[in-house]
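Handout, tutorial session.
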Amino acid sequence: MKYSILLIAAAIGMWSTAAPVSALTAMPPPSGDLRTAPLEFQTRTLANGLQVISLPDRNTADVTVQVWYRVGSKDDPQGRSGFAHLFEHMMFKATRNRPEDTWETLTESVGGVNNAGVFPDATWYFSVVPANQLERLLFAEAERMGSLVVDEAALTSETSVVQEEYRQRVLAEPYGRLFSLYLPRELYQVHPYRRPAIGALEDLNASTVEDVRRFHATYYRPDNAVLVVAGDFDLAQLNEWIDQYFGSLERPAEPIPHIAVEEPNPAGPREATYYAPNVPAPAVVVGWRTVPYDHPDRAALKVLNGVLSTGQSSRLFQSLIYDRRLASRAASNADFNMQAGVFTAHAIMAEGHDVEEGQNAILAQVARLRNEPVSADELQEAKTELVAALLRGRETIDRKAHDLGQALIMTGHASSADTDAMRIQAVTAEDIRRVAKRYLTDETRVILRYRDEAERPDDVPAEPTPFPVQAPVGLSDLSTAYDIVELAPAAERVATPEAGPARAVVTPEVFERTLANGLRVYVAPTRGLPLVSARLSFAAGSAHDPAERSGLASVTASLLTQGAAGRSASQIASEIEQLGAVVGATAGADFTSIHANSPSDTFGRTFALLSHLVRHPRLTPEEVDRQKAQAIAGVGMEYRQPMMVAYAAIARAVYGDAPYGSPARGTPSGLNAIALDDVAAFRAKRWRPEEATLVFSGDIDPETAFALAQSAFGDWSAPSSAEGGLKRAGEPADRRVIVIDMPGVDQAGVYLGARSILRKDASYYPFLIANSVLGGGFSGRLNRIIRVQRGLAYYALSGFLPREDEGIAMAFTQTRNEAVPEVIQVMLAEIGRLSTEPVATEEMETRRAALVGAFARGLETVDGRGSAVAAIANHGLPIGELEGHVSSIRAVSAEDIRKAASEHLDPAKFSIVVVGDSSQFLEALRRDYPNVELIPATDLNLDGAALL
């Protein structure tokens, strides 16, 4: 494939405001003919009604097995809202021949992943594993379809976990109630789509074992399911296994309850206002009912949504955020269920602006869509973005399988997954105007306002009154023809099939070259989808922020696309979207990463744009102020979330006033202090070729990539001297126990943290496995104890962030307030075990496999391969470490882990931060930690180690 090479004029200085003479503006626009290749799948139906989709793919060493059941939250029985979601959890319990840890043993323990999701119309279970594990996974899926163990212990455990999930996702999130509870309540009046998928706590508590068994017998049957298998397999062998394991499952005689509720047309516009605690800024949502999923107008509404809110050139962003600064966030969403669809647009207001301004601005943009056709450029941008997103989604087998399964469930035809791109490309400007006039009318719209509890008038109840929804299905409609299944004695269980021969993990060949100015260039070419990624990294992270300018690296990165010589921010956003590209920048602790991803046929222009943005910025004080305002609003929202506050505070506890202790996103005072000159000086000093790496990955050959790098950056020399050494971690500080009091929050965020190692440390790989053992996934020790065994949280994990200086090791969870002392005790005990007890051989093998599997999956995508190369190159490590990554993991012994833990993971050195309602746990916590520091959230100041 040929690539256009941009010749950038070298005479323009880095901060010149004059437009460079280049081929960039002369290159023709993309054709607009971007397409996705058809998925080459096969379908068949077993005698028992099970529908099967198979998609062989020899370009991967993995397989995904997905099972879709035609039962979702709309099917929840009367008085059992949230039942489909609860049952999604129950399906990971024991079966007749497999104990409760089946899914972790068969997936995580061999390097795979598993999860599930419940939607209004369906429930989706998926696993991705190395291809040699396929037969074992098919056996297990058939087991839980036909012989799930449902008992009191399993129901009690998962009810507790779902309740914690409810508290975390709905009650603890500032806008959780708005989008999970109140919005569906207002958009629908009688349809069961009105009920939240997660249900109500009282309904969850009312569930019985018999209810669950009857629900399984009613819906979890072969004639109500779709099995999708994609990846590296032999089709004949796959069909033989499917017949063997699924063919014997019986098709029940009882009919499946069918829901077909007709939602009445709105009688007129409606408005409602809700109040909730811990709302950082008021919000407004405007919504309309539209069309079901399998409707000809779905494509036009998706493109309309793209015009309205996809990307920074979209109308909502430009109007509400960029131009008028009414909102800190604004977006729209086109959502399509099987029996009805909705379109919503929302705004979270900026400081000094109220929801009436937001709703009027949204309605004005919708009126424009009704009254005048969108421009040709807007139309093409939206369509190209949507199709490019579909193309990126085809990088992984699990996404391909998902698209096929969803298409069959929602339309009755798996082949409709292949027509989405074609339908999007066929949308015209008149189609958009037509659907806007038909569905997004003033007569049918709903306006929902959302304000903080402190603004609630005295005559408005603190909690909305329960709203009646008569579910079409009652408990009496559920099947009574079920068997009570128990886990068979070990000697009587049918053995799980043995795994086949394993395939080695194949790492991409990496080519490298250093330009005369010191820029190191790496190329990891792969053939497959026509996508290319570029990742340019500078040694310019938050650790380089001046103490009084916290957030400078982050703001500088965010300004990348906000102005370049010859282009405004809006023009840049429009060009990115025309190219079907993703271009942006992020700043971490040590590095700033600038990335671009686009289809192959537009990558020449995309990379030209990226280099143009890096070398020829045209920034104004207004743009800097705009980005600062958005950053301050974002930080303000984070300060209302216990986990986000705890994460920021643990860094201060571990690093004190050292650079690593400062929040990477900045603080309100630090962000307020940033000026254009600060950004210019930071870029001039830190964005330097001799300290940078550039990684290309995907559908590009090395010589083309090197030529692009040389043309774009070869003549670039940094205009100032480099900064000297920096002590980023500072001196070790004493352990601290900090409680940040947020009265009334429903859950507490808990973080434990201590210094760990540098990325270049010899203990890096033992640390990787130690972290995986402790809390690196669902089957990590912390999650097994805190979630699975005790039901105290929705998750409990650990994290290990190696850096250029001393990194940080963390353990964290979000739990109900009264459980704080207990979860801290568990975390510290498990951290201590790592240095006092050797990890058992079996656990070592499973954690090694989990790490190897995650590494292999990461290499499947263009961006993933680029990130893997950059992660090594940025730290100055030999690129050969990529190829040796798997062998290094496998070489770690239990003694290596114990030694690394004993040197670096002393539980007595872990600082503790808890952010929650201290009235519910402070007294108990003080018995263990008399010197606990209590800081009211209203007094919190993250600018320094004192936190006050």
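The second record follows below. Compare its token runs with those of the first.
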Amino acid sequence: MLIAVLSGFILALSLVITGKWIKGKGAPLVGLFPLALFGYFVSFFPAIMKGESLTFTYEWIPSLGVNLSFHLDGLSLLFCLLITGIGALVFFYTAPYLKEHIYLDRFFGYLSMFMGSMLGLVLSDNIITLFVFWELTSISSFFLIGFNNESEESRRSAMMALSMTGIGGLFLLASMIVLGTVGGSYEISTLLGSADMIKEHENYLWIIGLLFIGAFTKSAQFPFHFWLPDAMKAPTPVSTYLHSATMVKAGIYLLARFTPMLGETVYWNGTLIIIGSITMVYAAIHAVFRLDLKGILAYSTISALGILVFLIGLGTDQALLAAAVFILVHALYKATLFLITGIIDHETGTRDVSKLSGLNKVMLPVGIAGILAAISNAGIPPSFGFVGKDLIYEATLGFETLIWVLSGVALLTNICLMYAGFQAGIKPFTGQLPKAYEKVHLPSPLMWVPPLLLGSLGMVFGLMPFLIDKSLIQAVVNAMIRGGALDVELKLWHGFNLVLLLSGITLAAGFLLYYFLKPSALLEAKTNRWEKLSPKSLTKGLGGIFSGISKLWTGFFQNGYLRYYLIFALTFLTFILAYKLFKETELYINFNDLTGITFYEVAAMVIIAFAVLFTVLTKSRLAAVASLGVVGYSICLVFLFYSAPDLAMTQFSIDTLTVILFVLVIYNLPKYLKLSNQISRVRDGIMSVIFGALISILTLEVLNEPVLKETSQFYAENAYTLAKGKNVVNVILVDFRGTDTFVEITVLAIAALGVYSLLKLQLKSTEKE
């Protein structure tokens, strides 16, 4: 299993070597890789059908409880099949879509990285590992969305997506750490056994609140949804893969996976119902007024994600069954519509739905795929979408409270989504073919076969739902139900009932809306009038305010003057130390415990005092450096007085080198100038006295602390036995702290190389300017 998860990253690395071949005739063959993974996961069907779940554990950081633990059950298997199955079709589709693109190999590398990240995410049984793969999906999607990096809009869209999902990832990490601490484990399978204890814990609200932010940002829930329409600047294969079956459903997967553990509370279910309802209606209405095919699909995707959050929020067995079915329904028809949109854009050069019609005459197979997808999207029998839509209505009608409100929300959403699906899947292919598109031709089979296959599956599963109800859907639902043992039997026909009536109303209203409401720039302009009040505009406004404050803050503190940097740093430290010392410290000095003061110590202190005064008052840089050297050498004497020759030698070496370096640096500087006024010097003097006094008090306070001998005893007892050295200090530096010392030496070496390079650098007169 570990190889299957990491294989996407391995493929991405291999493309560095095989890139030239991939950009040529080898491009279509890359799709065989995800196809092989699809076959690998299909092989687990027999075990999953029996109700088994498989666990694969590989040690990573066992001391921290972080392992590469993978858990395969019905829920993770469904997502693995979507990731690899739709992924294979996207790989095949990409070969002709980006044919002869200079960075085709790079694109396949990004897709492979993303596929591996998604597989790791949905299979992870360890919540820290899950977070790692969660962030990898954000990073790899950033490269995919911004693939056309010469376009400013693409770069901005990629940054927006990374910012939103990245911020959500930080909240998710906090949630996972708190959850692991409360539950006593980072393994999801273990945490499920502590569900009641977690829900009764005082940090439960923090856990679900932080988790919600992570899931909502990833799955584009209101008010974090606006990054997804912007992400449509990506090439169509990216939009298909990320926004129909994989990345945006990562948040849905997260909610579904943690429902048995954190669900069945008013906070969990109520929040998901409210956010899901707002998102599904808001986005569905927006989809009605869009002209760009990708814009229509983007908002209808957000609405579909809202439906899934809404269903998970309802939390009943029927609602979770509807969610499990709708995940597959949406993936099939939405991937089809995205691929069709890419074909239309590729062949006609436009995605404006008001300009497209009659393409059936030149691209019949593509038109058939579009009609099949639109039928499943609308929930017209005998499509799989009809089964899914009926289950949604059954879930709302079977809920305990607000039955008609919830059903009305679902009804309004489905009507708008039906209209949007007809605009994307039927409108471009029906009617009169414009003269501008008479020479349009059917693209490579690698482009039109994938959407036709996905569209056809939507009909096959509708006509024969028994193919997947027991073998897959039942296992998916049971993975979302705590101790689940639900018996699932999907049917196309449920008889004449209230659910059928709601379905009929949906279809009738959807057809009427499609017939009477024609897409136009005027309607889109009217909706754009409210753009100033949208979450996107409000977020940009807040970002502008934050940026302005940051500039003022930076201009004040980072003003380019080193003396002010020192003043700010010392002032901050002074306040912190003063607060800590005077609030919590009771300074007590027992003078009887102090040793007597000798003549040598007094002499050394007098020399230090005079050297310090000379340094402050002298007008010669060289004299100031020399007097500082006297201070250092006097401290060496103090170390000798207290039997610390090793420290004395270290101090002597450092001070000697410091004086020499300072002399070399300042020797060629201009004559000493007095650049500060009297007030500045008084200010600096006061700050120095206060800071020095605080450090002195802190030193005396340290002397009052009890001395712990455990560490020194350990080094003394083990220096010779473990490291074969009699000099304890040397053993600590070389063996016990060897890595730290090595890093310090490395840093010094790098700094020395930099200094040497600058000394040897000889610029031309033009370069110096």
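Points raised in discussion: The two ends are 59 Å apart (CA to CA).
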